[in-house]
Amino acid sequence: MLLSGLEQLSGLPLELLRSHALDGALTAMTGxxxxxxxxxxxxxxxxxxxxxxxxxxxxxxGRPYWRSAxxxxxxxxxxxxxxxxxxxxxxxxxxxxxxxLRTASLKLCEHCGRALYDDPGPVRxxxxxxxxxxxxxxxxxxxxxxxxxxHSKLWWDGVRVLLNVLGRPRLAVKLQRAGLPRELIPVxxxxxxxxxxxxxxxxxxxxxxxxxxxxxxxxDWPVRFISSMSAARITCGEYATAEIPVPYWLWSVCKEHLxxxxxxxxxAEVSSAAALLSEAxxxxxxxxxKRLLGVTEGKALDALLPVMTRRLSDTEMxxxxxxLSADLESASTARExxxxxxxxxxxxxxxxxxxxxLKAASGLAVEDGLALLQxxxxxxxxxxxxxxxxxxxxxxxxxYLRGTRTRFERYDLxxxxxxxxxxGVPTQGFGLASRFADLLRRSGVSEWQLGxxxxxxxxSEETLRVDHHARSSWSEDHxxxxxxxxxxRQR
Length: 491
Ligand SMILES: [Zn+2]
Ligand SMILES: [Zn+2]
Hints:
By secondary structure, the protein is mostly helical. It folds into five domains: about 1-35, no CATH class; about 40-125, no CATH class; about 145-255, no CATH class; about 265-305; about 315-485, no CATH class. It is about 55% helix and about 0% strand. Helix 17 (about 315-330) runs antiparallel to helix 18. The longest helix has 25 residues, at about 385-410. It is elongated. One zinc ion binds near residues 54, 56, 78 and 81.
């Protein structure tokens, strides 16, 4: 009554008063008294405040006044008369604006003068969810919403996200085929037809139906929502692109139930499969693991690959060195070719001995080469494959350092790098990987495609002990090896 009294005097203070009267509702819905970017408010285009009105309420008012809650776009039904609100004049079709310039009575359209209370308001609403009928600021969050939230804003944010996401014509089309109740079909058809309008700009009738859809989907939370979204094949990704952050109650359900990712084998599954295979003394290969798990993809397998990769044994490396030696002998006629081959042989020897990658070996300095010479001299007296390897490597490196490298050196371009190209610059390992893989293949090494990864991998004994703890124990061992590596000792 105070408001209507004020209205007699002037439009403007009344308008201000009314906007203040919304503070409670906007705080409840957005968390801030003034609201957020006009969210949940009928957009007026800056001409004042836009309202939906209840014709029946106006007809009964002794002194007519427009309720502040009528400015909220979620209010589509009059709680007293259970009729849809009107948002345009039936006479001229213009919006119902309350501006400071208004002179006409609040019972009349200020454009055409038609009596607003005359409107028959044909749409009677029989039943409406409680959360839609109670003034937002009066709503005790726990009792009224379908989910438990600590602040009603979280509920309204979720409603906002649902309206935003499901209002996408593409998704409305999907929902049309998801077997929703018949009374929701018209609104879905409307949204599917597009174009997409922000919720606040929709007509009262449309907003009413959209909220009905949200109400239906959120009842019996989250069972109905999950089954509907699944039937419509609407995924979590759609919610990730909503206009506002998705509140937890909604996001957790989307994340858990709507993520339609292809099934992926986990690292644990792969590890236990590998353990099973090795217990049964079967070769632990990627193919064997895939067959055991009955899968075709291998992301987790790839992640486990460093563990799975066996290391080239000394015996296998001996086979490689004999192929290399043969190559060196047959290349003796072409001097340049032989020099390059000898340099690459030394790079491979350094990488194999130090358990480093070919690229890392290519970056070694002359001092590293001299240190290696010393190590190989020491190891040359060892029996077995290790000693034989050391003797071969030693011979190559002596030859390289004494002859080839000096030949590649240029006085105007002094280099510290151990391995030089014939132009006197560091090789950077160009072509080395393919040469090594080719050597492995010709030496009859299985899994030769792994190339220099066979040099850097953990020892095979470690690979066989693959189990659930494989990763951590392996990385510790690996660290120990790195510490012990001769190269690291020198630095
Ligand atoms: Zn009413
Ligand atoms: Zn009018």
